Amino acid sequence: MAFNDCFSLKYPGNPRPGDLIEVFRPGYQHWALYLGDGYVINIAPLEDGIPASFTSAKSVFSRKALVKMQLLKDVVGNDTYRINNKYDDAYSPLPTEEVMQRSEFVIGQEVEYDVLVNNCEHFVTLLRYGEGVSEQLPHCELPCKMTHLARN
C-alpha cells in the first residue's frame, strides 16, 4: 500500500462520525474515534505535563493523558489504519449526536491513563458505547476507571 493511500477518505472506507479507528503501530494498536471532516478524538500520554506520542516507550508508563482532537492523517502518520467497530455486536452504539456531544465535552481535558484499565481503546469505546472495553491485553479483565465520562 502506498503511503498516500492511507490518507484518502476512500481508504479503507469512508469513516462516519462515531466510527472507531484502529491505527496499526509497530507492536500495538492505537485507537481514535472519527468525528467527521477528517478529524478524530484520541488520547495522548502526558510525560512531565507535556503531550507525547504513543510512539515513545515511556508512554506506556504515563499515568495521565490529554484528550486531543486531531486530523486523522496526523494521528496515522506513516502507519496504516482501518475502521473497526468490532464491539457493535456486543454493545449498542450510542446515537451519533450523543457521541459527538460527549466527545466535544472532553476535548482538552486531562484524564487518567493506564495501559491495563484506561488505555486509548477504553477511551474511544466509552465514547461510542457508554462502556470502556478493550481487548489490547486479553488476559486482563479489570474494569475501566473512565466511567465519569459515561455520566456526562
Structure notes:
This protein is an alpha+beta fold and 152 residues long. Helix content is 17%, strand content 27%. It contains three helices and seven strands. The protein has helices spanning 72-76, 96-106, 120-129, and strands spanning 20-25, 28-36, 39-47, 50-51, 64-71, 80-83, 110-112. Strands 1, 2, 3, 4, 5, 6 and 7 form a seven-stranded antiparallel β-sheet that branches.
**Overall morphology:** globular
Q: Whole-number radius of gyration?
A: 14 Å
Beta content:
25-35%
Report the total helices. 3
Q: Based on helices, strands and strand pairing, what is the structural class?
A: alpha+beta
Largest sheet: 7 strands, antiparallel
What is the mean predicted local confidence, pLDDT?
81
| N/C terminus separation | 40 Å
Q: Tell me the helix content.
A: 10-25%
Which regions have little confidence, pLDDT < 50, spanning 5+ residues? 1-11, 54-58, 139-148
Number of strands: 7
Give helix and strand order, one letter per element, not per position. EEEEEHEHEH
